[in-house]
């Protein structure tokens, strides 16, 4: 049976030999390495069938490595291993169909060990079998393609690499750990199996080393062995040189005597590092020596080793080591000395500082004492200055006091003079006032004789005496003044600028106090300001008093003319304010209303004579149970009272008359009160009354208006619908039995149903029936 084709796989350690084999075989037949050491320790064969059924044996060889960097087998040992395998194959007349040399293309620089490996491999192959040699560059998946191609070109063209083999027709192929679909295409990247199968077409060959070994040469004597030995010798020399350089450097460093602590420490560190390097080199040197001489005579005789020289060198090294140890000891001693010197110095410094400290304290004490003395001196100076200052001040104060006393005396004299002048002036003023009053009273008397209507009637009945001659009136009429009366909804109230001392209900203010333009709005504003009233915008202005509606804000009043609204006492402006405070005040001002007829000091104004307003209370209720009126004036009928129409708030309606009477009588107008005229005719609050007419409700003492409280209407009720009743067409039929209603209005009733309805009195004082379906009783 024909033996399987034999293919050797060689190369440096870790270049991917086992990986390549596993790829070709299609399974992990051999271990793949993970470290620097050669994973494959000895030559191992793997047999498999290529696709056309031809058996192939792949020989996985241990990789050459740099023994300086690994603790594993040295290249020499590996070469012996490979040599033994080649010799064995030769003995069996087994030729190689192919020899693959794998090289890591991603290796950045092809260093010493790689070059040595290549050199050995070239010698191992020899000049003949170069067609059967394939240099397989690996790790293409890890290198940039451009870089890889560049590296590959270098490998092919440089003598120290594979130029010799390329010249002898060896081939190159690329390999990488690609997934099948990502593997680059092209002849440079042949499938690994084809690299092998292509070789099978060639004639198998012996390699040079097989032949050499067959001639009886030892491995070390083969061409590859000699290359390796020369390399090792060179390495040995290099290392010895390195050792001596290092020793020299260490000695130099030790000799540098520096007091700089940092620099010294740096030098020490460098020495230690160099010593470690040296020891490593020495170890390697020993290993190398052992490797080279392990096999004994043949290698030594082939290239005579400089044993004597080495012995001398070894001795020299020992001496060097002793020398180093000696220098180290000396150095340590110096360090100790320095340390001690430092400690002594520190102790001395401490002693010095302690001594200095004491002297410092003494110095400080003396300084403090001096400071104290200085301070004492300063204090005594200051107290002396203070005493002097006090003396000076006292003198100043005395002088100033004398000056002031003098000034006071002068002032007193001036005051006395002024007092005298003042007394004189007062006397003159008094005299002039008396003369003025006398003149005024004379003028007044004349005026009353001519215009009796301009003088208030004291009893309100008219025809009485004119104003008393004794009255201290400040009356002063003329177009230069504006006259006015003030009202709340309950009636008149007093002015802060009264025309008369004894009738403060008519006010008077100089026209110039009203800033133009004299619109109703600006007059209202000025009046409210001068009278101290709030909310002028809510006030209403009436002129004349009897006008049924207030003047519009934009209307103008002529205050400059000789006569006109507000320019005389007889035609005053009426200002009706809403102020709640004033309303309350007016409600409480009973005593300020016109007093009884026998009060001769009261001036009612001329209109008083034209009014006689009489009412009686409870007239409807009892018919005889009348009460005494608060303004009673007729002893024969005490229920009769009277009020001045001037006190009724405009516009003059039954409602404002009712409010005024109620106020005078101290009643609160409620829906339970109603005003009647002509005995039993109910007046509605909106009924207009014209007091200028000859007769008006209550103008006749014999036919007074009556304010009645009806005790029947005690229950409150709420109207539930709005209805105007009676409709205009049926007025004749129904009036006044049924009452018009406003939804939600509160009315008063006796609570008795008569003819399907309640008798009610509404807020206007209107009385009538409301259907029971249109009312809800609140009080039951
Ligand atoms: N990315 C990449 N990794 C590779 C390639 N070839 C080998 N390796 C990796 O390199 C390491 C060494 O591979 P091995 O196949 O053990 O190398 P070896 O030449 O057999 O090494 P020795 O044990 O010294 O003989 C392993 O981790 C492999 O997976 C390659 O082409 N590309
Ligand atoms: Mg391997």
UniProtKB/TrEMBL annotation:
Name recorded for this polypeptide: G domain-containing protein
The keyword Lipid metabolism is assigned to this record: no
Entry's Gene Ontology molecular function annotations: GTP binding
Record bears the keyword tRNA processing: no
Transmembrane regions: none
Signal peptide, first to last residue: none
Entry keywords, A to Z: Coiled coil
Coiled coil: 229-291
Basic and acidic residues composition bias: residue spans: 436-449
G domain ranges (all copies): 7-67
Residue ranges, annotated region (Disordered): 436-476, 543-570
Native organism: Laccaria bicolor (strain S238N-H82 / ATCC MYA-4686) (Bicoloured deceiver)
Pfam family for this entry, one: MMR_HSR1
Family matches, as Gene3D superfamilies: P-loop containing nucleotide triphosphate hydrolases
Species lineage: Eukaryota, Fungi, Dikarya, Basidiomycota, Agaricomycotina
